[in-house]
Amino acid sequence: MKKILLLEDDALLSETLQLFLEREGYEVDVALNRTEAEKLSYENRYDLYLFDINLPEGSGLEFLEYLRQAEDKTDTIFVTALTDMESIAKGFDLGAIDYIKKPFHPQELLIRLKAKFKNAVIRLNDIEFDPDAEVLRKDGVVIDIGNVQYRIFTKLLLNQGSVVNKVDLYEELEYISDNALRVAITKIKQRLGIEIKNIRGKGYLIEKV
Q1: Which residues contact 16 (CB under 8 A, 6 or more apart)?
Q2: Contact residues for 97 (Cβ-Cβ < 8 A; gap 6+)
Q3: Which phi and psi angles does 27 have, rounded to 5°?
Q4: What residue ranges do the domains of the chain occupy?
Q5: Coil, strand or helix: which one is 191?
Q6: Each residue of 38-58: pLDDT tens digit?
Q7: Order of strands, sheet of 164-165, starting from the edge strand that comes earlier in the sequence
Q8: Out of 3.90.1170.50, 1.10.10.10, 3.60.110.10, 3.40.190.10, which CATH number does the structure's domain 122-205 have?
Q9: Is the CATH number 3.40.50.2300 carried by domain 3-117?
Q10: Beta strands 76-80 and 48-52: pairing type?
Q11: CA 113, CA 107: separation in Å to the nearest integer?
Q12: Is the pTM of this model over 0.90?
């Protein structure tokens, strides 16, 4: 699940966007001002920032500049009512990947998010998974862990931070049993050098890094 930080001082708009994006499968944290956004960006790791430019205390542009100086290179989309080219140009100079002009339909934002994440590589420490190419790499080297282990691992990775029920993981096994699943999980852990937690009575979990 992709995680987004939304910085928007309009409480109604931020709540509307949060509910809409969460229904579409995104995890969204909301900040109504820069102070809240700084705290959240420090405590969490995000796949995307969605920042309003006009804020009561400074601007989203100034905040992104601050983050870039702190070596935070998270992709950013600006939401703005501004149309002047100077503000838009500065946003792109700071590394923004897109902007969307208010007012807009949430579906337009969703289209841009899907385009951004279409070819996104999922990372877990020194492991990279390219869902489109179905390629798994460790330390930059393509690695083969076997079809069963690959399917189980990718299902756990795509649900990183959430418990995957054993029943869902059984679907990836050739011969269904608790022991076969435990063996497969053990092989994945040994081959990739990662931690996979057994949540007793529920399933397995790869914690969000």
Answers
A1: 106
A2: 75, 76, 77, 116
A3: -100, 125
A4: 3-117, 122-205
A5: helix
A6: 999 999 989 899 999 888 888
A7: 164-165, 203-205, 197-199
A8: 1.10.10.10
A9: yes
A10: parallel
A11: 10
A12: no
